[in-house]
Specification:
The complex is a heterodimer of chains A (211) and B (130). With 211 residues, chain A is mainly α. Chain A has helices at residues 2-11, 16-23, 29-56, 66-69, 72-97, 101-131, 140-173, 177-209. Helix content of chain B is 80%, strand content 0%. The longest helix of chain B has 45 residues, at 84-128. The chains are: A mainly alpha (211), B mainly alpha (130).
Chain lengths: 211, 130
């Protein structure tokens, strides 16, 4: 479509710069659609890890079981942190729509802190497990557990890095269209991670402690 | 040309003006708090005697909560991006369901059919190993 536009405008004798503008006449939504497709492929990555856990989740190899290892109050706290960070990101989006830079940054900061709290608790849980001798090499159950929960934690960590970067960008350039598009993408990413966490806490933790 | 450019940008944002309101975010948050609290209560309070019942119920809650997140936080609907996001989502969900259900079904039957022989063999080997 855009190719046709380019040739027709070039034939009409427009100056060189117009080509670039015409090229950019893709609807801006296409970034969001592309990002959505990335999220869906990420979803398949998580699905593979979920499948591995579903198959191996009861292969304890004589080692500790989920019921012995999982600390549900800690998981509940983690879940609360991630859920709260979802709504605070929502508030940041609302503030960015009202073109209020200061409160957008404030809510983004709160989101980042909640995310960092989530990662801190998860690292605490992991080190605790490894110190107890329940590291990823102990059994197939623990391998698949660390792979799944660790991948989610890595995603959240990268989300925080992205969030901090975006806060610097916003601080420097303000709520320009590019930054608003980035905000939109990170919003999708962040909420998507929350969706994955629903699967994790239900399928891994809550079902793991069931007898 | 630059005027055209700004117009285009403006238009782009109007398309996304419906990305949530305070009300929709609050409703979504309250729903997901409830849908999170109930499964935790069911498991930690040991409400049901049979763990199979608990598992089925909390999986149901998780499915509902995922839909709530999709609608209220990710603003999914059948019209955004001309329906392409929904199509991609349906395709992904289909793949995920086939992968999950298929693997669990196959591996369950594999374990079921192989287990007695396997355990016997492995214990036998373990005795011989040292």
């Amino acid at each position: 479509m855009s190719e046709i536009n380019v040739t027709s405008s070039a034939a009409a004798g427009a100056d060189v710069s117009s080509r670039f503008y015409v090229r950019e006449h893709h609807p801006e939504n296409s970034t969001l659609l592309g990002f959505w497709l990335y999220l869906m492929s990420d979803c398949l990555v998580f699905a593979c890890l979920f499948v591995a856990y579903a198959v191996l989740g009861r292969a304890y190899a004589g080692g500790p079981t989920g019921a012995e290892l999982f600390d549900l109050p800690l998981v509940a706290t983690n879940t609360a942190l991630l859920l709260l960070s979802s709504i605070t990101y929502g508030f940041a989006m609302l503030e960015s729509q009202r073109k209020r830079l200061g409160s957008t940054l404030l809510w983004l900061g709160v989101t980042g802190l909640l995310g960092a709290g989530f990662i801190a608790l998860e690292l605490h849980e992991f080190t605790h497990l490894i110190h107890e001798g329940a590291g990823p090499q102990r059994s197939a159950f623990l391998t698949s557990f660390f792979a799944l929960v660790g991948t989610h934690g890595l995603h959240v960590s990268f989300g925080i890095i992205w969030l901090v970067t975006l806060m610097f960008q916003l601080n420097r350039h303000g709520l320009i269209p590019e930054n608003r598009r980035r905000l939109m993408c990170l919003s999708m990413f962040w909420h998507f991670l929350d969706v994955v966490w629903i699967g994790v806490f239900t399928f891994v933790y809550l079902m793991g402690v069931l007898p | 040309m630059s005027e055209h450019h700004t117009n285009h940008d403006h238009h782009g944002h109007d398309d996304h003006a419906d990305h949530g309101s305070l009300k929709s975010y609050t409703i979504g948050f309250l729903l997901s708090v409830i849908l999170t609290a109930i499964p935790f209560w069911l498991v930690m309070g040991k409400v049901f005697d049979k763990s199979g019942t608990t598992a089925a119920v909390i999986l149901g809650f998780a499915a509902v909560q995922i839909v709530v997140h999709m609608v209220y936080f990710l603003h999914m609907n059948s019209k955004s991006e001309g329906g392409w996001t929904m199509l991609a989502l349906i395709f992904t969900v289909m793949l995920v369901v086939i992968m999950l259900a298929g693997s669990m079904w196959v591996m369950y039957h594999l374990n079921h059919n192989m287990m007695p022989g396997m355990t016997h063999d492995s214990t036998h080997q373990m005795h011989e190993m040292p």
